[in-house]
Amino acid sequence: MAVQSSLPATLGAATRTMRLVHAALTAGVGIYVVVVAVLVRRPADPQAGAAAIGVLPYAFAAAAVGSLVALVVLRRKMMPAREPPAQLADRIADDDPLPEPARRALGKVFAASIVTWALAESVAIYGFVLGILLRDVRPMLPFAAVSIAVLLAYAPRRALLEAAVRAARR
Q1: What angle do CA 17, 101, 84 make, to 5 degrees?
Q2: In this structure, are residues 137 and 36 in contact, taking their beta carbons and an 8 Å threshold?
Q3: 131, 125, 130: which is closest to 146 by C-alpha?
Q4: CA separation for the pair 4, 20 (Å, rounded)
Q5: CA 160, 8, 78, 66: dihedral to nearest 10 degrees?
Q6: What is the DSSP secondary structure assignment for residue 94, as one 8-state letter?
Q7: In 3-state terms, what secondary structure has residue 79?
Q8: Average pLDDT, stretch 28-38?
Q9: By the 8 A CB rule, do 160 and 82 touch?
Q10: d(Cα 90, Cα 96) in Å, to the nearest integer?
Q11: Nearest-angstrom CA–CA distance, 151 and 50
């Protein structure tokens, strides 16, 4: 009995799937901000635990930087080989069936992208927790901004997928 592969059969299917997952994770960052803003309608008493509160933003910022470093290192290790197009006409059609090696390469790109996006979103989650602990949405905003910027920088691009397919075909 043949095992059915869950890897995308065409470049168009892979592109649509990756864009959907990316959009959901990016929208999640905005939802985190709204949740903190709704939960924290009044700021905490500035005198309560001032010493602990003063250290928290730095601790969470350090954790966020750690996530971003891990993102770069893991993405570099997880990405498959890529080959740029030799000429402009070297495009792959959306509905061209992909051979198994190309499908595996797309699976690696997808896995590396999911890890990248999860680590980028973790920066917003650190801000979310910080906003809840400090009972103020303002400390969360830089974390959310960095998270969205990184998510947009690593948005799924068709050229990346095509480059992985081209390298796998060689």
Answers
A1: 75
A2: yes
A3: 125
A4: 23
A5: 90
A6: T
A7: coil
A8: 93
A9: yes
A10: 13
A11: 33
Neighbours of 28 (CB within 10 A): 16
What phi, psi does 5 have (nearest 5°)?
-75, 140
90 pLDDT more than 80: no
Contacts with 146 (C-beta within 8 Å, 6 or more apart), sequence order = 64, 68, 123
pTM, full prediction:
0.84
The tens digit of pLDDT for each residue in 102-144 reads: 888 999 999 999 999 999 999 999 999 999 988 889 999 999 9
Exposure of 137 in the CB half-sphere (CA atoms within 13 A): 14
Please report the beta strands in 16-163, taking only residues with DSSP state E, as ranges in sequence order: none
Q: DSSP character for 86?
A: S
**CA proximity to 165, closest of 110, 106, 108, 84:** 106
Q: Give 6 or 28, the one with higher predicted confidence.
A: 28
DSSP assigned state of 89: T
Q: How far is CA 15 from the centre of its chain?
A: 15
Report helix, strand or coil for 97: strand
How far apart, in whole angstroms, are the C-alpha atoms of residue 12 and residue 165? 12
